[in-house]
Amino acid sequence: MLWSIVGTLAAICTTIGYIPQIIRGIRTKNLNDVSPMMLTLLLVGCSLWLAYGIHLKDPIIALANGFTLSFVITILLLRAAYKKNNS
Amino acid sequence: MLWSIVGTLAAICTTIGYIPQIIRGIRTKNLNDVSPMMLTLLLVGCSLWLAYGIHLKDPIIALANGFTLSFVITILLLRAAYKKNNS
Hints:
Helix content of chain A: over 70%
Radius of gyration of chain A: 15 Å
Structural class of chain A: mainly alpha
Strand content of chain A: under 5%
Number of domains of chain A: 1
Distance between the termini of chain A: 52 Å
Oligomer: homodimer
CATH topology of chain A: Monooxygenase
Largest interface: A-B, 39 and 39 residues
C-alpha cells in the first residue's frame, strides 16, 4: 500500500514535471536552451513506454507516458514556433 | 521477448535523453530557458522511482532512474553555476 503510493507519486512527479517547462516557455517565448535532441529522445522513449504500458495493460505506465508524450510534443512545437518567430 | 526489448529501449531513451541537454548546456554555458521547477519535480520523481525500483528489486527501474537522477542533478548544478556566472 505504502509502496503503491510511492510508485504513483513518482509517476505523477515525472509526468507533471514538464508542465512548468511549458509555462516557462509560453511566458518567456524562448526555449532555445532546451535541447531538441533531448526532446526527440524523450518523444521516442515515451512512445515506446506507452506501447509497453498498453501491452502490459498497466494503466499507470500507459497514462503517465501518454500525458508525458503530449507535454513533450507541446514543448517541441512551442520551441520550433518561438525559434521561427525569434529568427 | 519483443516486449522486453521495447521496454528496455524505452528506458534507455528516457534515461540517455538528458545527456544531450547536459552537452548543450556545457557548450552554450546557458540553461536559463530550462525550467528549475521541472528539474526539481524530476529530481523528486526520479528519487521516488529509484526507491520504488529498489523495493521491487527491479534492476531496470532502479538503474534507469538512478542514472536519470544523476543527470537531472548535473543539469540543476550546471544551471545554477551558469546563472551565477552570467549575472
